[in-house]
Amino acid sequence: MIYIILLVLIIISLRYNWWRIPIPYSQPRVLMYHMIKEHLTNSKKRNKWRVKPKDFEKQMAWFSKHGWHSYTISEMVEAKELPPKSFCITFDDGYADNFTYALPVLKQYGIKATIYLVPDYEYNSWEKFENKNYDRLLACEQIKQMQKSGLIEFGSHTLHHKNLLTISEEEAEVEIKRSKQAVEQIIGMECKAFAYPYGKYDENTVKLVVEAGYTSATVVKRGFFEAGKPFEIKRVGVLGTESFVDFYLKITRIRNKL
Length: 258
Fold this sequence. Notes:
Helix content: 25-40%
CATH superfamily: Glycoside hydrolase/deacetylase
Shape: globular
Structural class: alpha/beta
Number of domains: 1
Largest sheet: 8 strands, parallel
Order of helices and strands: HEEHEHEHEHEHEHEHEEH
Low-confidence stretches: none
Mean pLDDT: 93
Number of helices: 9
Strand content: 15-25%
CATH architecture: Alpha-Beta Barrel
CATH class: Alpha Beta
């Protein structure tokens, strides 16, 4: 019996890395979301990026209950000092469900967020879905309504969600610069924040982002916020296929698995 118990404990410890040393709360966290929407049937790959509305509400309630301080990414970058338990919610792509399901929850708990838009698309048609069952992105009117809440910052995710390392420098420059202009035309104010599509970037990409006039850029690499690296901001990805235990471990320990 004792061997069975030990085996179960080992399996649980491999699946849930509870044994990792917690990261101090003095280190700000930046979370990466995509969609807040119910799951599709028989589509685990797509559900990975779809956090159920009830799960998102539970996560935001946890932050609120435990006294966390929310910021937009630009506020976090520009702050001279941040208190313990500082965090930033980010959404890549700018899906319409961010308005329908995420915004009411953010309003309920007074939590801020930054949303990275792909302004030249109405749907996530850069994806190669076999049935072409795409998801709708935010409309201009929805974006403007979200702005009025005072909780949302809008950034750029390029014009067409292209991997910037697989296109020419000239095309990459257009994607970075013109998407900034397009977002600014929608929101009527400066667009400071950028997110590299697929998290792909190099030194030259960073240079183009800086030259375009952005003040920050987020990546997909796991980690916590480091003030000295505004153009390589690491994030903690929140997935729709993981449990609240996974979420808790990611927030407290950055990693939930090996």
